[in-house]
Specification:
Elements lengths: L13 H7 L13 H11 L11 E5 L2 H20 L2 H5 L3 H16 L3 E8 L4 H24 L3 E5 L7 H7 L6 E10 L21
Antiparallel strand pairs: 1-2, 2-4, 3-4
Bound molecules: flavin mononucleotide.
The site of flavin mononucleotide has 10 residues, from strand 3.
């Protein structure tokens, strides 16, 4: 992990932003101010979108919901151990409590959390295309954030899929589904990038 300050006053070219953006796991504690968060999410509504269905929805989590989800996140970490009989047998109550506490602190360390969801409407093709559009929207959001020195982690962990989360966020799973949570904030650490060279994935056909 490289410790880097990516504050760049909006001077990145598109290619520089694309290449230098990294998924961020460790954040400084400061939340992203509301006006800056709105500027970043605004980039999301300009994603390409077949038939202009505008299927993206953004739900910003408030402190009460965040606390409730942090408690549930902590339980999930414990359940990961207890659901495996061998691991459960080998783990003391004290260790389980530590795992739970670490989970709680980990979730609470994400300064700003946005659930990104997609409206579920129409036939299979429409749903695929709408999913693709929301993913494009999410990349716009990451790049707009990165330009302002703000990093994110796209998460599809269990907490993003549970009925309890849908209830808390007031999202009706019959007509909308959560694609992921964005954990957002000012990076404490920037991971080093990993990609194969382009020629590993590029074909030209005559
Ligand atoms: C659809 C999708 C789901 C992801 N879910 C997770 C996740 O649940 N947990 C996680 O740590 N990272 C998740 N990521 C982030 C990837 O792990 C990350 O993009 C990858 O490691 C490449 O790193 P980079 O974004 O810094 O290039 C997800 C990314 C995408 C596109």
């Amino acid at each position: 992990m490289a410790q880097t300050n990516i504050s760049n006053n909006g001077k990145l070219s598109v290619m520089e932003a694309i290449q230098s953006r990294r998924t961020i796991f460790k954040f400084k504690p400061d939340p992203v101010p509301k006006n800056i968060l709105e500027d970043i999410l605004y980039a999301g509504i300009w994603a390409p979108n077949h038939h202009l269905t505008e299927p993206w929805r953004f739900t910003v989590l408030g402190e009460t919901v965040k606390l409730t989800l942090a408690e549930r996140y902590s339980e999930i970490q414990i359940e990961k151990v207890t659901s495996n009989p061998e691991a459960a047998k080998a783990t003391t109550e004290e260790t389980l409590a530590e795992i739970g506490e670490r989970g709680f602190q980990k979730f609470m360390s994400k300064p700003t959390i946005v659930a990104v969801s997609c409206i579920k409407e129409g036939n299979e093709q429409r749903q695929l295309e709408d999913y693709a559009s929301v993913c494009c929207s999410m990349q716009n959001i990451q790049l707009a954030g990165w330009e302002q020195g703000i990093g994110m982690q796209w998460s599809t962990g269990a907490i993003t899929m549970e009925n309890g989360t849908y209830n808390l966020l007031d999202i009706n799973p019959k007509n909308e589904y959560i694609i992921g949570f964005y954990y957002i904030g000012y990076p404490e650490e920037i991971p080093t990038p990993k990609r194969k060279p382009l020629n590993h994935v590029l074909r030209w056909v005559d």
